[in-house]
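DM between two lab members

TW: hey, do you still have the F-box domain-containing protein entry open?
JB: yeah, one sec
JB: this one, 500 aa:
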Amino acid sequence: MSSLNKDILFLIFEELQEDSKSLFSCLMVNRLWCENVVPILWRNPWCYSNINYANKTYLFFIIACYLLDDIKEFITDRGIKLPSGSNQSLLFDYFSFCRSINVNTINSIISIGSTFAYNQFFMQQEFYSLFMRKCPELKYFDMKSIKHQIFYFPEAIIRLESLCELKCNTSIDSSYFYGLSQFCQYIQRLIIINMDTKTNYGIVKLIEVQKNLKHFEWEDNFDEEHFMNDNPYDKIFLALEKKAASLNYLKIFFLYVINYEYTLLQKILPKFYKLKILIIESFFYFDEEQLEKLKMQVYHELEILNIDCTNRLSIITSIIENSGGRLKKILFRPDDAVNYEYDSFNENSLKFIRKIHENCPLIEYLTIAFSPSKEHFAEFEKLLKICQNLKSLLLILYNMDVIETEEMLKNGEILLKILIRSSPANFKEIRLSDDDLQFSLENLEEFLEKWRGRHALTIFTIDSNYIREDYTKLIDKYKSDGVIKDFKYFRHIDSLNYCV
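TW: and the structure you got?
JB:
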């Protein structure tokens, strides 16, 4: 491995670019490996979740080494402690590899030098100044909690023109966004945390000037006590609507949904006809009139659908029916579908299964909830036979009537036999609740024995029965044999849900 040529090493390290632990290990192999790893680590050195940046004095040391001598003297006189050796030259020109700024992370690192707010502010400004001089281009910018209008630096125009991803929040003064909108017109990913109930017109302007916006996320994150019947959404989303020709990813989380959000979603959702990923994580309910409008939604390019709303099965079924047959992931909270569609659950769940196998030949990840009736099981088995790309199921069985343990075990037996008979070749993961479904020790062992030779199976469950000693012993046996890849017990059903 240590003798691989530079091009091969680069391709390997590119695959590890989000795994800082592995990359740090690779640094120590030899000089060639080190020279190839450093540019990848420093492309976005502020992004690693396993690093406590507030304690990383070596990063503060590197920043200090870049400061001009007169700046070092000035800040030392002001009581800012620079690390010893910061006058020496560096082995690499680290900032020449850097393509990102994360304001919160950089502030944490700089605070190592001084606890005084003014000193920190001054050091931050010096950092942004030298970054604009050294960094060839800026691709990723997380500007949450920013205090410096960096677009006034002389080199800012060139650096900001290349920006691809921006993360921000609405509490930032509009003037910052007006400044950015002069140069940043080719942002592809825009992620906004809404901290206010009033419209930020700077963000509206920034959206309006974009020429290739592909990915948009909006997340409400403000205190309930600050919520008033203002409308911070219309201007933002009407500006976004004009980017429908390029937008392929839309994720929305509304914290409090009232009438104007209903109206807004009705108005804008049909416009985003090129979406490949649609995620709506709000708790809301569409009435019959609104549902009829949603049934007209047509997303021919949609690949991932994740909608959280109280009558989700009706909505998702309608969108599936009008999709272009490209759906690979259909995700939602199945327990809510049971609870809030109680009166129509049997009918809706049956229709849902049918629309999956009629319209989703490419489905890989599927959330599904249905009653353990003969008809539902038959349609479910038909789905398994038709959807040959299926890899993972999040499954809830729910009977509208109270049932005994014996019937729950019977449901489990039926399900396991269906999985053995009809599971696609690539099927390798199942996530199970404990509502109306249980596996006896004997049925589970028979199933696992017949599963030999297929993909090792991952099983997630919230049923505490499976952490009993007899089940644990059985599961460990089939883990050792390679039949089970992983088995996890969770205390709450939310832990079973897929993450997007």
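TW: got it. The chain has 20 helices and 14 strands. The first strand starts at residue 100 and ends at 102.
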